[in-house]
């Protein structure tokens, strides 16, 4: 546990669910963890005990929040969950916080498996549709050219990025044909007992097009998705389909709005451990990015910098290809936040964007 984590309260300790099993955090709220084939090797998913009135027929069961990637391992783990963790009850609906593969990957399979409806923001649903067709900035020749324009020059890395045009569809082969829309401030009623059943949607921007976190005020529980994570900072990237984007400003504004939620809420993040200390973690994240901004400004005052020039300054560790693509997106995001705020100027030199202190 690092120094920043010690400022948080890991209310349920450090035990994590075994693959295919769950841990009950509160009555009717269960924690499932699926594996990922990346350096970030897991994603947390949630089971909420539910009851719905389905056209006049009351049905008992569970709502699934987020799905894991489409893989044989994840499907097999879900089958164990269905057999051992649901008390013989069905999945009634599938809620997805956002369109990234570890969250929506198996949504199609889950909704077909249980004849359930997908609930997601319209923006993320439609972006997932585009990504399944190779049109949303998840690799391919356009992504490689964009990375090159920001200083990535390693031919092998660029070749691999260009070849990854099927990266998203391998992890998300299909999305459900229909969905129910989640909107900012909207209330989804999930529950079957005396506990509060109203979960309010909080839209967040920057990490995904229209990420939805869910807050239950009666139980003081926040399903934060990827917007607030306890151990790592959320990836916020500029991608080729929005080449002048400013996602980091959107992200920082989004988490600042989450201060309206109680400081002692139990936060259920998509990666890491459940914790209390929401406001403390927001402070940490805001401070982290302020420090990175200062580092970038200092470097750009000494000499014009491309995003690739800043990778070691911002990340200070060796990066594999998967990490490099995320790191490049984040480096561009820091530069763009300062450029669009008027603190840096952008120049195109020999086909590469470089940024200098005004």
TrEMBL record:
<dbReference type="Pfam" id="PF00753">
    <property type="entry name" value="Lactamase_B"/>
</dbReference>
<dbReference type="InterPro" id="IPR050662">
    <property type="entry name" value="Sec-metab_biosynth-thioest"/>
</dbReference>
<dbReference type="GO" id="GO:0016787">
    <property type="term" value="F:hydrolase activity"/>
</dbReference>
<dbReference type="InterPro" id="IPR036388">
    <property type="entry name" value="WH-like_DNA-bd_sf"/>
</dbReference>
<dbReference type="InterPro" id="IPR036866">
    <property type="entry name" value="RibonucZ/Hydroxyglut_hydro"/>
</dbReference>
<protein>
    <submittedName>
        <fullName>MBL fold metallo-hydrolase</fullName>
    </submittedName>
</protein>
<dbReference type="Pfam" id="PF21221">
    <property type="entry name" value="B_lactamase-like_C"/>
</dbReference>
<dbReference type="InterPro" id="IPR048933">
    <property type="entry name" value="B_lactamase-like_C"/>
</dbReference>
<keyword id="KW-0378">Hydrolase</keyword>
<dbReference type="InterPro" id="IPR001279">
    <property type="entry name" value="Metallo-B-lactamas"/>
</dbReference>
<feature type="domain" description="Metallo-beta-lactamase">
    <location>
        <begin position="42"/>
        <end position="271"/>
    </location>
</feature>
């Amino acid at each position: 546990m690092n120094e920043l984590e010690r400022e948080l309260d890991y209310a349920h300790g450090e035990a994590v669910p075994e693959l295919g099993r769950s841990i009950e955090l509160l009555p009717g709220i269960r924690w499932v963890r699926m594996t990922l084939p990346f350096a970030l090797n897991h994603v947390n998913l949630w089971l909420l005990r539910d009851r719905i009135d389905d056209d006049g027929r009351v049905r008992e069961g569970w709502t699934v929040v987020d799905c894991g990637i489409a893989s044989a391992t994840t499907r097999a783990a879900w089958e164990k969950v269905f057999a051992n963790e649901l008390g013989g009850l069905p999945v009634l609906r599938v809620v997805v916080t956002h369109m990234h593969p570890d969250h929506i990957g198996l949504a199609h399979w889950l909704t077909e498996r249980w004849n359930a409806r997908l609930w997601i923001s319209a923006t993320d649903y439609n972006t997932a549709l585009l990504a399944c067709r190779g049109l949303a900035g998840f690799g391919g020749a356009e992504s490689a050219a964009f990375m090159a324009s920001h200083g990535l020059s390693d031919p092998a890395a660029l070749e691999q990025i260009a070849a990854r045009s099927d990266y998203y569809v391998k992890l998300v082969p299909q999305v459900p044909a229909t969905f129910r829309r989640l909107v900012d401030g909207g209330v989804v009623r999930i529950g079957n007992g005396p506990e509060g059943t109203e979960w309010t949607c909080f839209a967040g921007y920057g990490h995904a097009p229209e990420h939805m976190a869910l807050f239950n005020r009666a139980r003081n529980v926040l399903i934060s998705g990827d917007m607030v994570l306890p151990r790592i900072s959320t990836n916020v990237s500029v991608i080729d389909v929005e080449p002048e984007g400013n996602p980091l400003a959107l992200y920082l504004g989004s988490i600042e709005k989450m201060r309206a939620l109680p400081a002692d809420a139990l936060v259920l993040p998509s990666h890491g451990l459940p914790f209390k200390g929401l406001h403390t973690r927001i402070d940490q994240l805001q401070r982290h990015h302020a420090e990175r901004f200062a580092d970038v400004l200092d470097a750009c005052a000494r000499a014009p910098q491309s995003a690739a020039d800043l990778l070691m300054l911002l990340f200070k560790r060796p990066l594999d290809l998967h990490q490099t693509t995320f790191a490049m997106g984040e480096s561009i995001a820091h530069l763009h936040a300062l450029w669009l705020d008027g603190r840096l100027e952008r120049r195109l030199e020999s086909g590469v964007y470089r940024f200098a202190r005004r």
